[in-house]
Amino acid sequence: MRAGEALVAADENEHTALGAELLARAIDAAVRERGVARVALSGGTTPGATYRKLATMALPFDRIAWYWVDERAGAPDSPRSNFHAARADLGLDRPGAKSAGVFRMEAEDPDLSAAAARYEAHLRRAFGVASAVAFDAMTLGVGDDGHTASLFPGTGAAAIDDRLVAAIEAQPGRGLEARVTLTAPVLREARLVVVLARGDKKRGPLAAAWADGPDDEVPARVLRGAKGKVVWVLDRAASPSG
Ligand code: 6PG
Predict the structure, then answer these.
(1) Using CA atoms, how far apart are residues 32 and 27, in angstroms rounded to an integer?
(2) Going edge to edge, which strands form the sheet with 70-72?
(3) How many CB atoms lie within 10 A of CB 240?
(4) Helices (DSSP H) in the chain: which residue ranges?
(5) How close is the Cα of 153 to the center of ligand 1, in Å?
(6) For the chain, which residues make up each domain, given as ranges?
(7) Is the CB of residue 55 less than 8 Å from the CB of residue 97?
(8) CA angle 178, 215, 220 (to 5 degrees)
(9) pLDDT digits (tens, 9 = 90+) for 121-171
(10) Model pTM?
């Protein structure tokens, strides 16, 4: 059973606009209600256009605190870095760019468990130790293997629930470098999750994510327990319902 609702865009421009509009509304609401919007960003090839669109919108950028959903092991200026990509797409690397903070995961640390623990400690301070770490908005993608964030299938990562941020070992067999990732409890706690997926390769993984079965088989299924709003922003090629 799918969590949330699916919006099917007619083309790439509409897909980009739908994602950006959902994020913008959540940001405006968070700033109105709490004075700050905390947004967690995924990487990959899909969300860049949405982030570039968001950067052009009339938003209270000085009240937006940017975080990451996951990060690939390596330097922050690596072309593989999710921080590097999203910071550029959002224009946060420009002189005078306004924000309430840009908080990357320090995946250049050879000890990714230590980097994960530092990020978790930062989240707990930022959100308040007594409060849940509930991002106001979060973008997620779905990998061709059904992963989301860096919770990969068959690794047990989808079941990690004793910490907010985890280090994920490299999987050479899959060509995957080591990662740092938010865990499923944090994904489920977000007030709004915008899942961005486009193209026919995503149709199968999305259908699997919406079907019953173990999270470890298709980690995007962890969204079934989402407490907030989940919106799957797709194009026709990716949509399991056409
Ligand atoms: C990453 C992302 C990852 C991504 C999916 C989908 O670090 O790669 O955080 O979870 O969202 O792999 O990626 P695409 O958008 O490229 O399909």
Answers:
(1) 9
(2) 70-72, 179-182, 165-168
(3) 18
(4) 12-34, 48-54, 82-89, 112-127, 184-189, 203-210
(5) 14
(6) 5-235
(7) no
(8) 70
(9) 999 999 998 888 999 999 999 999 999 999 999 999 999 999 999 999 999
(10) 0.97
Measure the CA–CA gap between 200 and 178, rounded to whole angstroms. Answer: 27
| Helix residue ranges, H only, 161-233 | 184-189, 203-210
Residues 6+ apart with CB under 8 A from 134: 127, 189, 190, 191, 227, 228
Could you tell me the distance, in angstroms and rounded to a whole number, from the CA of residue 144 to the centre of ligand 1? 9
Query: Do the Cβ atoms of 229 and 220 come closer than 8 Å?
Result: no
Q: Which CATH architecture has domain 5-235?
A: 3-Layer(aba) Sandwich (3.40)
Nearest one of 115, 39, 101, 40 to 72, comparing CA atoms: 115
129 CA to middle of ligand 1, Å? 29
